Amino acid sequence: QVQFVESGGGLFQPGGSLRLSCAASVSNFGLNTMGWYRQAPGKQREFVAKITSRNTTIYADSVKDRFTISRDNSKKAVYLQMNSLKPEDTSVYYCNFYFARISSITNWGQGTQVTVSS
Prior knowledge:
Elements: E1 3-7, E2 10-12, E3 18-25, E4 34-39, E5 46-51, E6 57-59, E7 67-72, E8 77-82, E9 91-97, E10 112-116
Parallel strand pairs: 2-10
Antiparallel strand pairs: 1-3, 3-8, 4-5, 4-9, 5-6, 7-8, 9-10
């Protein structure tokens, strides 16, 4: 069964940094495009960043130049380095396979809560 376990969240100050981690129990992990998503209270889940099997990365405009996605295929892990945090980054963050249509994803992990507040 495919599972994703996210970690690294917490309470952070505006302007701060953190790194989220995602452990994936996925066969052929290295062949998959992986993504980070987030869901703020009262809002729909949204795309944050993706990384292809060839390490090509794409970011949502709201996080471009502040967040960096990376992967370690040997560990079946995906990371999200988050810098210059803003209060609007407050969300539950999830990793998963990348799909352009988020509604196509039905198997979510528990996510990790990131709260940005002074």
